[in-house]
Amino acid sequence: MSVDKEVEVKFKVFRFNPKIDFVPRWQEYNVRVDKSTTILDALLKIKEEQDPTLTIRYSCRQAVCGSCGMMINDKQMLACFTRVLELGSSVVKVAPLKNYRIIKDLVTDFEELFQKERQVKPYVIRHEVEELLNPTGTYKQTEDELLGYIQFADCIECGMCSSACPVSATDPLYLGPMVLNRAYRFISDPRDLGLEQRLEVIDSEHGCWRCHFAASCSAVCPKGVDPAKAIQLLRRMLVKKAVLGTSSSKKVDLIPMGHIKGKLELPKGWQ
Amino acid sequence: MKESKRMFLHYVSGLIILVTGFIHLISNNLPGIGTAIHESAIYPVNLIVLLSALMYHMLNGARVILMELIPGRCAAKAITWIVFLVGIALYIYGLQVFLNLFWPVE
Ligand code: SF4
Ligand code: SF4
Ligand code: FES
Question: Regarding the domain with residue range A111-244, which homologous superfamily does it belong to in the CATH classification?
């Protein structure tokens, strides 16, 4: 069995604790890595062996939870999804994601992002309250309908697209690619009837019309979601609605399922 | 007005500028058909449509740029209103210049 050769790589890590530091600083660490070592592995190694004060955020370690997005050699990447040697560089620069408030070191604050996301109601909206409280079946969708939005449903909410977006950088009120993609994902879902409820936010001065279509967002998405495309499709939908005045004529069948039982509580604020 | 309507008009005015601008150019520079247009009522009407589309396109563009330069929900509303009022004033002024030029009151 072949043993992978280890090499030493220099890590330049952004360090900043807003509670005690006036200015951020770069700290250097040398780490031995092999071809399977990810940036996250290397940072955890630094934390375990050299500097326990280094702060990072992660959870799944397999590009699913969206927690470990950071600037790696000046580009938005998932630390758990990027192998060190893949970068082909003997010095690796690691910094927190741009466009977010820094909590500490590599950890950024997503509170504002998630507040904006809540404004677009990122869930399927139906009007049949009785069916929602006492479900009797499941809403049918065809494979083609699913294919129409599945790409946009792959978002793991890592916030990297909004970090790469030049408009998000200058307009703090701009919803940003992640949130607009989430809105489109549900609006294009054949089971969803919530377009009208989301219009006020997405069709506003800080909604989808502020996108410059530079597509920096899509270029950094680790899941191939293409939020820039979602925004263009959203605009097309809104222009059609503004010009033709068409409202959604979605109709989905309910497939009865005898085994579904039980009364559900609607979440607070649900409409 | 919803942002989608404003932006739709922005795109439409852009197309109108292309068409009316082209007509304006040939009517001023092309002998034959250009001269014929220049001497007919199409010329002033085309110019007024060009002015209207240009005003809308330009002012909406300025509104978008200003909203990006001065972020804030109140700022966005204020900018929209200021640009709207400035636009109306400029449009009335420009229109009366054209009307006096082409159809002067005796
Ligand atoms: S669209 Fe892509 S980059 Fe943006 S939050 Fe979702 S997964 Fe991350
Ligand atoms: S395409 Fe739009 S949302 Fe994506 S980075 Fe560019 S401006 Fe931002
Ligand atoms: S740790 Fe979950 S995406 Fe990286």
Answer: Alpha-helical ferredoxin (1.10.1060.10)
For A43-99, the pLDDT digits (tens) are 999 999 999 999 999 999 999 999 999 999 999 999 999 999 999 999 999 999 999
- Residue B2 is predicted with a pLDDT of 85
Instruction: Tell me the residue range of the domain where B27 lies.
Output: 3-102
**For ligand 1, is residue A228 a contact (CB within 6 Å)?**
no
Q: Domain A7-109 class?
A: alpha beta
Q: Searching chain B, which residue's CA lies closest to the CA of residue A206?
A: B73
Considering every ligand atom, which ligand is closest to the CA of A153? 1
Cα A103 to Cα A147: distance, rounded to the nearest angstrom: 38
Q: Report the pLDDT value the prediction gives residue A252, as an integer from 0 to 100.
A: 81
Q: Does A205 reach chain B within 8 Å, measured CB to CB? A: yes
- pLDDT, tens digit (0-9, with 9 covering 90-100), for A142-171: 999 999 999 999 999 999 999 999 999 988
In chain A, CATH 3.10.20.30 sits at 7-109
What number of other Cβ atoms are within 10 A of residue A59's Cβ?
11
> In chain B, which residues have their Cβ closer than 8 Å to the Cβ of A206?
73, 76
* Mean predicted confidence (pLDDT) in B85-99: 91
> Does the model's ipTM exceed the 0.90 cut?
no
Q: Count of domains in chain B?
A: 1
Is beta strand A7-15 parallel, antiparallel or unpaired with respect to A91-95?
parallel
pLDDT at A2: 47
In a mutational test of the pocket of ligand 1, which residue from A60, A178, A211 has the highest number of ligand atoms less than 8 Å from its CB?
A178
Q: How many Cα atoms are found within 13 Å in the side-chain-facing hemisphere of A138?
A: 7
**Residues A61, A40: Cα–Cα separation, whole Å:** 8
Classify residue A23 by its DSSP letter: S
Q: Where are the beta strands (DSSP E) in A37-114?
A: 69-72, 75-78, 91-95, 101-104, 107-109
- Nearest chain A Cα to B66, which residue? A171
Q: Which of B1, B3, B12 to mutate to test the interface with A (most CBs of A within 10 A)?
A: B3
**Residue with more model confidence, A59 or A242:** A59
User: What pTM does this model have?
Assistant: 0.88
